[in-house]
Each structure stands twice: as structure tokens, then as C-alpha cells.
Amino acid sequence: MYERLIDSEQETEALARQLAEKLNPADVLTLEGDLGAGKTTFTKSVAKGLGITRNVNSPTFTILKQYEGRLPLNHLDVYRLANSDEDLGWDELFYGEAVSIIEWAHLIQDDLPSERLAIQIHRLEGDKRRFTFEPFGKRYEQLCEELFE
Ligand SMILES: Nc1ncnc2c1ncn2[C@@H]1O[C@H](COP(=O)(O)OP(=O)(O)O)[C@@H](O)[C@H]1O
Ligand SMILES: [Mg+2]
């Protein structure tokens, strides 16, 4: 488990861009944290770092948005699936070369690949945040080691 204390939105953006530079095809990131923690803010900067020029906004009402960049991006926000037990086949998204970022990923726990990077954002006072990165699998352990070296 890796931890980073953040003082400002700019620092969140910088962390996201550093991560984006290191992403490979088919990488999967999950984002957990209360409303307003900064999941979408973080995703926007990952997208910029992937060379995506279209504006990334919260896909809350559409669940999935896809973008083209250096690597394609699947941005999911599954918040509204909270009361659904249906198998909607999200796992199929994870087979392609796109990077996937999933807000509220625990709501589709059974569809998640076993190897992934789990990111938690805790709101502290004001603009401060505590980020924790938990890698599942060798690929993501390496990624975290590089990012936090
Ligand atoms: N350090 C920070 N990191 C991310 N967002 C921050 C930070 N400080 C303040 N904010 C603000 O908090 C809000 C986060 O909203 P958003 O990214 O939509 O959260 P979520 O997707 O987790 O609900 C934004 O209004 C953003 O400007
Ligand atoms: Mg959001």
C-alpha cells in the first residue's frame, strides 16, 4: 500500500499526469472515495496525460464514456448501478487495449479483473486529500514502485 498526501487540486493533477505517463494498454484503475473527493478531477488529468484532447466530464448519467488518445480510455462511473444485481458485461471492456478507470468500482466487484490498481481518495480539510494506491498483481506493484520511488 502506497500513500501520498496532497495539498491542492494542482497536486492531484500532477500525480494523475505522472501516473498517466506510465500507463500501458489495458491497464485498469479503480477509484474510490466520497462524492467530491476528486475521482473525476483525477481522471480528467489522467486523460490529459494520455493525450486525450476532448473534455472529460463526469459520466454519472451515462455510466461509460470512451475517448481516443495515445491510449484509448474507458471512463466508467458505476455509482448509479448501486441497486442493480444484473450482470451487464462490463468485464468485456477490459479485454481491449484501452485503459479503464472506474469510479465506485466496488459496485461491480465481480466484473473487475483480478489484476488492477485500486486508488482511494480521502478528503481531509479544505483541498487536502490522502491518496492510497493498492496494487493487485505484479504489473501494478511495478507501476507503484516507479511512481513512488
Ligand atoms: N486536492 C484536490 N484534488 C481533487 N479535487 C479537489 C482538490 N481540492 C479541491 N478539489 C475540488 O473537489 C471537487 C472534486 O470533485 P470531483 O472530482 O467531481 O469528485 P468525485 O468524482 O470524487 O465526486 C472539485 O470541485 C475540485 O475542484
Ligand atoms: Mg465523479
Automatic annotation (TrEMBL):
<keyword id="KW-0479">Metal-binding</keyword>
<comment type="similarity">
    <text>Belongs to the TsaE family.</text>
</comment>
<dbReference type="Pfam" id="PF02367">
    <property type="entry name" value="TsaE"/>
</dbReference>
<protein>
    <recommendedName>
        <fullName>tRNA threonylcarbamoyladenosine biosynthesis protein TsaE</fullName>
    </recommendedName>
</protein>
<dbReference type="InterPro" id="IPR003442">
    <property type="entry name" value="T6A_TsaE"/>
</dbReference>
<keyword id="KW-0819">tRNA processing</keyword>
<keyword id="KW-0460">Magnesium</keyword>
<keyword id="KW-0547">Nucleotide-binding</keyword>
<keyword id="KW-0067">ATP-binding</keyword>
<dbReference type="InterPro" id="IPR027417">
    <property type="entry name" value="P-loop_NTPase"/>
</dbReference>
<keyword id="KW-0963">Cytoplasm</keyword>
